[in-house]
Amino acid sequence: MLVPAAVTVNQGISFAYLYLYSCMKFGAVPDALLSAIDFTLPPDPLFNQDTLLGNRVKVPKVFLGASTWGDASWVGTLYPPKTPAKNFRQLYPQYFNAAELNATHYNVYSPEVIAQWAAAAKDRDFKYCPKFPQSISHYSNFENTADLTHAFMESIEAFGPHLGPAFLQTSESFPLTSRHALFKYLATLPQQHTYFLEVRHPGWYESADAVATWMQVLRQLDIGAVITDTPGRRDIVHMHLPIPKFFLRFVCNQTHPLSFQRIDAWTDRLASWIDQGLEEAYIFLHPNSDGAVLELATYWIERLNRRCGLSLQAPVPKQSSLF
């Protein structure tokens, strides 16, 4: 069990409780411990100066969504009353412009199924961001993966224009010492797609030099680095941009006041990056309860539109759907 130094056990909260709590969401901690954590975003590394070239692109793209198609609390507030859960997937693209697709981590779907999902986003500027199958990222040691990778690529390519970046997340036990097999695998991926890597073992973040070294490899491979901003693992908020695209997984304690303060800080940083040439941003919300997604998403979008000069649509109910 990994318990970062930023999180101290007090107020009668045991390590066992922290472990069980963090299993709900990676790096999650109870509300009672949030005040002990420094959520200040680190400064930009010099590394980013070779990625962001100083000029705002004409049309920066920002995509924001959830890691689920919906929550029961959305029925009657966002989705029409009495909407069954089986219909959430079809409705979701009407209210968000991106989805973090964790389902592909557990199953490689047929192109026919993926095409059906893509059809729900027809005529919309919507992106699905699939997670690599665990058969590759967790259980292969990145050896003998050609058939697995081919099947995954054949599957997700059925998204067509709605395919966003695919992200590969290694397990918390995957060490920096195994990086060569990982990088060798990443170098074999089809170059027509965008990829991001998320690594979780603390060894990847032990020193600034270590981070800079593997970030440079990602830059050479034209692969981005996921930033997971989660309360209990501040070490992985690395702020490096190997490519001029950004992928954030934002773990928070529902609508706790600190969640909104953290969103404000990220909005300021994104505004700076967009002014310097960031081309695309993908933001996915991971509150402890999916019922908080709507309020958090609306807040994010209002701040992004105001601070970054964007025109994103907040997830609001369509009047014809509710009456």
Describe this structure in words.
The chain is α/β, with parallel strands linked by helices. It has a single domain, classed as Alpha-Beta Barrel (TIM Barrel), CATH 3.20.20. The chain contains ten helices and nine strands. Strands 3-2-1-9-8-7 form a six-stranded parallel beta sheet, covered by helices on one side. Strands 4-5-6 form a three-stranded parallel beta sheet, with helices on one face. Helix 2 links the parallel strand 1 and strand 2. Helix 8 runs parallel beside helix 9. Pfam families: DUF72.
Summary of the model, kept short:
The protein is an alpha/beta fold.
Topology:
Blueprint: H1 15-24, E1 61-66, H2 88-91, E2 98-101, H3 111-119, E3 127-130, H4 134-137, H5 146-156, E4 166-169, H6 179-186, E5 195-198, H7 208-221, E6 224-225, E7 227-229, E8 245-252, H8 257-276, E9 280-287, H9 293-308, H10 319-322
Parallel strand pairs: 1-2, 1-9, 2-3, 4-5, 5-6, 7-8, 8-9
Helix pairs in contact: 8-9
Pfam families: DUF72
InterPro entries: DUF72 (IPR002763), UPF0759_sf (IPR036520)
Can you tag this structure with a few keywords?
single chain; 323 residues; alpha/beta; TIM Barrel; 3-stranded parallel sheet; 10 helices; 31% helix; globular; disordered N terminus; DUF72; UPF0759_sf
Tally of discrete structural domains: 1
Radius of gyration: 19 Å
The counted number of beta strands is: 9
From the 3D coordinates, which CATH architecture would you assign? Answer: Alpha-Beta Barrel
The low-pLDDT segments are 1-23
What general form does the structure show?
globular
SSE pattern: HEHEHEHHEHEHEEEHEHH
Q: Distance N terminus to C terminus?
A: 50 Å
